[in-house]
Design a protein that fits this description.
There is one protein chain. This protein has 11 helices and 9 strands. It has helices at 35-47, 72-81, 84-103, 119-126, 154-162, 164-173, 179-184, 197-209, 213-225, 231-245, 249-259, and strands at 12-16, 19-24, 56-61, 108-111, 115-117, 129-132, 137-139, 177-178, 190-191. Strand 2 (19-24), helix 1 (35-47) and strand 3 (56-61) form a beta-alpha-beta unit. Helix 3 packs parallel to helix 4 (119-126).
């Protein structure tokens, strides 16, 4: 399957030179999510294992904001009228989006500007790397509508990104942090000017796309699997993973390039 065969209806999708871009595209609502957006994002990330020409995925938002979370009128209000099985179906679907992102073999980079709150902050958290801007506003707002902070894997993901104490503060209070604070806490890998956000993101994306993509997918898988392993078990699993990577042609290409003192040209096989 090729990336250009994917034709979502509820966000923009573009593929260029091995990099796919998802753009949340409701700028008039600060890219708030609908039921359809959630499910289509989940299904798209589930398909990525079968997409041959996409090496890296970038997710961003239109109109100077990343995502304001679930749409108050199209999601929050209807949820009040759903019975318990209906509510559970919804929360499982939103969680499945994060699971799909974490199991997507391609590295995912979130390019974040402006508002990044609620479910939008969780989508950014589910990415592998996050690049932000100083004017970002990041918040996990679940408690502000009477909900627990344990939404879409927040209690598992966020402490691993910024540490338990800081994650606990944000999930208890729902307070907003600036781009500078988010970078200082480790939520953002780096900050850049808003005008350079996509340029810097694509520079990093193309660097990853030119790397040994089979090995990178293995790295992502091991990072995910080793969360709940003992050190001994993790080391044994990494030995198996690395031996598999040593069977690839990219490993031979890397060696040959080192011997010839040139940059390797990896192909992901």
């Amino acid at each position: 399957m090729r990336g250009k065969e994917i034709q979502p209806r509820h966000f923009r999708w573009e593929v260029d030179d091995g990099v796919a871009t998802i753009t949340l595209n409701r700028p008039e609502r600060k890219n708030a999510l609908t039921f359809e957006t959630y499910s289509e994002l989940r299904d798209t990330f589930r398909m990525m294992e079968r997409v041959e020409d996409v090496k890296v995925v970038v997710i961003t938002g239109a109109g100077g904001n990343f995502c304001s979370g679930g749409d108050v009128y199209e999601i929050i209000r209807p949820l009040l009228d759903l019975d318990m099985p209906g509510k559970l179906e919804f929360t499982r679907m939103t969680g499945d989006l994060v699971i799909a992102m974490r199991h997507c073999p391609q590295p995912i980079i979130a390019a974040v500007d402006g508002v990044c709150v609620g479910a939008g902050a969780m989508i950014a958290s589910a990415a592998d790397l996050r690049i932000g801007t100083p004017r970002c506003r990041v918040a996990f707002l679940f408690n502000r509508v009477g909900l627990a902070g344990c939404d879409m894997g927040a209690c598992a993901l966020l402490p691993r990104i910024i540490g338990l104490g800081r994650a606990t503060e944000l999930l208890y209070t729902g307070r907003e942090i600036t781009g500078e604070e988010a970078e200082r806490w480790g939520f953002f890998n780096r900050l850049c000017d808003p005008e350079r956000l996509l340029e810097e993101t694509y520079t990093l994306a193309r660097e990853l796309a030119e790397g040994p993509t089979f090995a990178q997918a293995m790295t992502k898988r091991m990072l995910h699997m080793e969360w709940d392993m003992s050190l001994d078990e993790a080391i044994r699993c990494e030995a198996q993973a690395q031996a598999i990577c040593m069977q690839t042609q990219d490993f031979a290409r890397g060696y040959q390039a080192f011997v010839e003192k040139r940059r390797p040209s990896f192909r992901g096989d």
